[in-house]
Amino acid sequence: MTETDQVTTRVAAVQMEARVADIPYNIDHAARLIDEAVSKGAEIIAIPEFFTTRIVYDERLFGCSLPPENPALDMLVSKATLNNVMIGGSYLEMRDGDVYNTYVLVEPDGTVHRHDKDLPTMVENAFYVGGCDDGYIETAKGRIGAAVCWEMVRTQTPKRLIGKVDLLMTGSHWWSDPGWWVFKPIAESFHAGNGRMMHRTPGRLAAMIGAPILHAGHTGILEGGYLMVPGTRWNVGTRTQLMGDTQIVDGVGDLVAWRHYADGAGVITADIELGQTETREEIPDRFWIQRLSRLTNFIWHHQNACGKSAYQWAKRTGRLQTYDFTRNMPPAALTARNDKVLTP
Fold this sequence. Notes:
The chain is about 25% helix and about 30% strand. It is globular. The chain is α/β, with parallel strands linked by helices.
């Protein structure tokens, strides 16, 4: 599809308010929002990253991955085929002994495509490892790119998709300041800066790849643990805001529809032109699209290290398991919160 043969399509992006480790509830919550998007005439629907569970340091999540064939995917396939729509979103998927943050894109005929997020973000390192595919998908509706959360803020994403896609499907689980006492003096400014970064990310990426973007997000307050020392599972309590910022952006990077986190769960829709357009912004010659503050860079490296060691511990001790739907909860050994959680 080229700039001269763009097609106008009704699209939707979903904002969820999911629960930690409650996969059956979250599947049902996503299904209801997909139904709402269908009722508004959407042909392509984006749901968030991690639509089966929020992510925070909570050891129940070691038992919250899904096998390649699973009820969450069954729901997406059912909704796509019954309503003749395309749907995309991500969940934790276990394959060959490791867990991935897998973005699944389901076509109206039930065809399933997968993209594994390239690098886990911070605490996410505790629950999955990175993938290596390019996120490029050929579909009956055109060339689709897939990118998950902080894939949108790294230059390797536009470099591999520029000029190749007619639409980019994205979703995030973007949190704000950690919410504990050390951050209180700067919490307000950190939150504001983080919100600005989140808000402009989809538009800048669209302008760099020359294609419209659907971005689905999470809202609500997220509580759990915050890892403190690499090589240990020592963590303190955290309470943070999920930033939402669900957006539909056109091919030149202009915002078409938007839902703030304060608006809660819901659906936005718009009629947009699918297809490649001329890029409006150059890709920077650096790792990050937007320059991160020194504090954010420190948190990135610190939390990556903490999370990776927790993942290796969970894998070594046999705690990485798929969700037990027969019990409506993760395996019994994992239901208790880590006894090392400390409240400041």
